[in-house]
Amino acid sequence: SQTIHQWPATLVQPVGSPLSLECTVEGTSNPNLYWYRQAAGRGLQLLFYSVGIGQISSEVPQNLSASRPQDRQFILSSKKLLLSDSGFYLCAWSGGANVGDTQYFGPGTRLTVL
Amino acid sequence: KQEVTQIPAALSVPEGENLVLNCSFTDSAIYNLQWFRQDPGKGLTSLLLIQSSQREQTSGRLNASLDKSSGRSTLYIAASQPGDSATYLCAGLSGANNLFFGTGTRLTVIP
Question: What pLDDT was estimated at residue A73?
């Protein structure tokens, strides 16, 4: 069966510090991968998605970047965090064979920027 | 750009009651409509997925409907239980990969 992992589970970082959140998927190959952010009082927003190694699409302009160094690894990064980067970050994967395949979500990382 | 709205934002019901959660979307050109459940501080669990060609899907006590022409979807929960307490999110898939989420309905089922 497929599983998706995210770490760390929680993170408190000062403004201006770097960020690296990791997401890995097991039990499937060549998944589509996604990063979402859920800010306080707001809905989930798609930040990045990837259909393959090294292929990243960004949905919104922002202070963050994403990379996919391996087939089942998706990393969310920032060189200098802003207060507005605080939120709950969710990684998701889908089979990718068909448009509209169900997305499966990881447990999330709660990031607080102070 | 797709916008998804969920009403009500919060709902409290006594155990055993049937209830309906509402979701509306502005762009009817969606591939599918999904309902998710989110427990506090946790990730999302997919509940039901309705393809654009379908009108409803059922899973146990849950039934979701989709009316693309009116831009609406509903999630019906029968015989609610305290374990159903969570935030319920709907999301429309516009484009191959872009899920647009509503802000959710926080459901509390009172024993």
Answer: 96
Find out whether B24 and B67 touch, Cβ atoms under 8 Å.
Answer: no
pLDDT at A43 over 90: no
Among A45, A103, A109, the strongest candidate for a mutation testing the B interface, having the largest count of B CBs within 10 A, is A103
A105 in reach of chain B (CB within 8 A): yes
Around A88, how many Cα atoms within 13 Å sit in the side-chain half-sphere? 18
In this complex, do B97 and A108 lie within 8 Å of one another by their Cβ atoms?
no
Q: Which residues of B touch A107 (CB under 8 A)?
A: 42-43
SS (H, E, C) A24-49: EEECCCCCEEEEEEECCCCCEEEEEE
Residue B44 scores a pLDDT above 60: yes
B63-75, pLDDT tens digit by residue? 999 999 999 999 9
User: Which one-letter amino acid corresponds to residue B98?
Assistant: N
CB-CB under 8 Å, A32 with B99: no
How many H helices and E strands in chain A? 0, 11
> Rounded to a whole number, what is the distance in Å from the CA of B22 to chain A's nearest CA?
15
Residues B19, B11 contacting (CB under 8 angstroms) = yes
Please report residues of B whose CB lies closer than 8 A to that of A110: 41
Is the Cβ–Cβ distance between B7 and B102 less than 8 Å? no
Write the Ramachandran bin of A20: left for phi over 0, alpha for psi from -120 to 50, otherwise beta: beta
